[in-house]
């Protein structure tokens, strides 16, 4: 009997820690709050290694109060509005170094001042702007993916299929396939979005056909228009000051240019 009591009490004592552990597991774990990040502002154009933004007589419209008020950044003041600052407040010089200024979380007045400043791009200014780090990071990631896609496209596409891009970028088609793809990689890495858009654009293929037709003297491009090479007949005129190849390419995309485009394609295919 005593032995049974001992076993029962031991069983109870063993279940208590397990119950406590189970209860603890059910408790929600408090997430750690991420530390506030500094805000970065950058000079839009120019600036150099040392740049002071305008700070004298800065007037802004206070939407809450409904009238114009002067703002001033003064260290130690709780407000950026001059009429709310102490008589001893003194304007603090704000300097952008190497075109950038980092505002710490412990500088809320400076952040408010810069966000309300008329020279801020967000307020219609042209001197400085707030850098959205999260947005910039997303753009960087998206750009990396586009570069990867463009490189994969160049690697997996035949040289014949890439020829419209070659002609569009003005790359020498007489170079070896390795050299041509190397040149295409330069364009793809410098502006991957533009590269991918061009590859899927029908304009690029049409322009490539036009350039090929000119090379084989099917077409003759003159300053005043595009002509057939066999009989020197004018196909479409070029307005003064415009490029004949670009103008003719746009012409081929119109309803009037469909017949010419079909004939052009027929002659290219017969080469």
Secondary-structure element series: HEEEEEEHEHHHHHEEEHH
Give the low-confidence spans: 4-15
Helix segment count?
9
Major sheet strand order: 6-1-7
Q: Strand percentage, roughly?
A: 15-25%
Principal-axis shape: elongated
- C-alpha termini separation: 108 Å
Fraction of helical residues: 40-55%
Total E-strand runs: 10
Helix-strand category: alpha+beta
Largest sheet: 3 strands, antiparallel
Radius of gyration: 34 Å
Roughly what is the average pLDDT, rounded to an integer?
Answer: 85
Structure description:
Helices cover 46% and strands 15% of the residues. With 271 residues, it is an alpha+beta fold. The strands form four sheets. It has a three-stranded antiparallel beta sheet with strand order 6-1-7, covered by helices on one side. A three-stranded antiparallel beta sheet has the order 8-9-10. The radius of gyration is 34 Å and the shape is elongated.
Summarize the structure.
This protein has 271 residues and is of the alpha+beta class. The chain has nine helices and ten strands.
Give a topology summary:
Layout: H1 2-26, E1 39-43, E2 50-52, E3 58-62, E4 67-71, E5 95-97, E6 100-103, H2 108-116, E7 128-131, H3 133-156, H4 159-168, H5 177-190, H6 192-199, H7 202-215, E8 219-222, E9 225-228, E10 234-237, H8 244-252, H9 258-269
Helix pairs in contact: 3-5, 3-6, 4-7, 5-6, 7-8, 7-9
What descriptors fit this protein?
271 residues, three-stranded antiparallel β-sheet, 9 helices, 10 strands
């Amino acid at each position: 009997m005593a032995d049974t009591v001992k076993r029962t009490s031991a069983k109870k004592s063993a279940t208590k820690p397990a119950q406590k552990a189970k209860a603890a597991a059910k408790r929600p774990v408090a997430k750690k709050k991420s530390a506030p990040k500094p805000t970065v502002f950058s000079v839009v154009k120019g600036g150099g290694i040392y740049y002071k933004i305008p700070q004298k007589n800065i007037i802004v419209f206070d939407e809450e109060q409904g009238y114009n008020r002067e703002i001033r950044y003064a260290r130690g003041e709780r407000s950026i509005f001059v009429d709310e600052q102490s008589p001893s407040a003194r304007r603090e010089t704000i300097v952008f170094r190497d075109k950038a200024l980092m505002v710490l979380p412990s500088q809320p007045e400076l952040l408010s001042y810069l966000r309300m400043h008329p020279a801020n791009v967000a307020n219609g200014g042209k001197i400085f702007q707030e850098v959205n780090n999260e947005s910039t990071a997303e753009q960087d990631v998206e750009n990396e993916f586009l570069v990867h896609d463009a490189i994969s496209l160049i690697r997996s596409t035949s040289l014949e299929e890439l020829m419209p891009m070659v002609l569009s970028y003005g790359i020498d088609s007489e170079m070896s396939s390795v050299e041509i793809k190397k040149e295409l990689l330069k364009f793809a890495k410098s502006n991957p979005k533009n590269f991918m858009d061009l590859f899927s654009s029908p304009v690029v293929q049409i322009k490539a056909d036009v350039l090929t037709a000119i090379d084989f003297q099917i077409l003759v491009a003159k300053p005043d228009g595009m002509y057939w090479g066999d009989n020197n007949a004018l196909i479409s005129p070029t307005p003064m000051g415009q490029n004949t190849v670009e103008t003719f390419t746009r012409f081929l995309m119109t309803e009037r240019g469909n017949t010419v485009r079909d004939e052009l394609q027929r002659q290219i295919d017969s080469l």
